[in-house]
Amino acid sequence: MTPIDCSKLQQALCTANQLLFKPHLNRLSNCSSLASNDKLDPKCFKLIEITSFICSSSDLSSFAYTLSALHRLQTTLYYILDVSPTTITPYIGLRSLHNLCIALDLIIAGLMKLDPTLQYEYIEYTDFIDLSTLCSVSSATFTPSLPDSITCSTPLLSAFVQSMKGASYTLILIANPITLECYRQEQITLLGLHTDLFPFTDINHNIQHHKHNNCTHTTNCNHTCLDTHTLTKSNGNSCSTTVSQNTTDSFSTFFKPSDSANFTKSNNEACNNSRSETCNDNCSDTQTNQCTNSKGTTHTETCITIDINQENFRTRDEEVVRLLETITTALARYTATLYLPIFNFNTYFTSCNSATSLLAATTYMGLLTASSPANAPRFINYWDDCNNCFIPLIEQLKQLKTPSFCVEGCCNEIIPGMPITANELNPFIVPILLSSSLGN
What we know:
The protein is an alpha+beta fold. 28% of the residues lie in helices and 31% in strands. The chain has helices at residues 6-19, 61-72, 100-114, 158-163, 180-197, 318-337, 354-368, 390-398, 422-429, 435-438; strands at 45-52, 76-83, 88-95, 119-122, 136-142, 169-178, 202-231, 250-254, 262-266, 287-316, 342-351, 378-384, 418-421. A hairpin with a 7-residue loop joins strand 8 (250-254) and strand 9 (262-266). Helix 2 runs antiparallel to helix 3 (100-114) and helix 5 (180-197) runs antiparallel to helix 6 (318-337).
């Protein structure tokens, strides 16, 4: 059996985090390079405030065609609700590198089909968000599950606004158009991800327990014999003979002139006879008998027996199982919507109160995902004013830029959001919610 490469599992989980689950996005991809004077080019941006709108049509489908046209023009749509305890002020923003004027004419024409008396005014982007009062941002990301029918009398966001009644916050819905090529590539990536993760669903384990039985028999026999005999015999006989002879003969004559001659003879003869005889006779007999006898016997017997007990069992990686179910759900959605106008859909909530922004995000997602599949991806991100990227994030939202984030271990930038069709996005935008439609 080919061993499973666990590094592939980590790569697959990273890819899943990019495509499906994007929580804990605390670092903007361009946070360090964002200059304080980085202002949005007004040629690429338009923001209007809806000052009067009364929906007079029961058919909201016509506005979906407007959204499809915006998708065709690759225009990013921003729907903004600035909510206080007493008022709701709606804005619609458009951002595009090309054909911005055409996109603006399309959105106004689409709204006027629903209300011919529509009134609006152009707004500078610096006028609708006050940075000095904000301390938190939350984002709610999910695949929307929409009711069967939506009319002007039952606007989609009315239940959410009523649930958050009395709170002050700003809702910023961002819809980025996704091209067919990018959408198809995401689908192919999901298919590959499913293939990579599937081997980790059920993992077979084979564990062998080895028991060694050792028996050793050893016999050692050693015999040594050492026999030494030494005999020393010595006989000695000593005799010495010395012969010495000494003879001295002396004759002297002494004359005086006045005297007659006198003769004196001295004869000294000495004989010394000495004999010394030495005889040495030594006899030495040495006999050594040495007997060495060494005998050794070694016998070794070793036997090893191994008892092998093998256990086979299977484990299921529940995280992988749930992720595969999520991918299957997402793939079914990709297949059903592949050739439709698709936007990347996400909603941010800013507030001067951290609890309010988090409550708004959870309430919003809870109301709009009640009937969606349990394994559909959904997540909430949160940034407070202690985060290094909090101010740049607010600046980007204020300038109607789409924030992108980077995650450690993932090579691609991540933009929070889930695919949504133009028909599904339609009821989020219309009818426009005004204070007159909701009451106090």
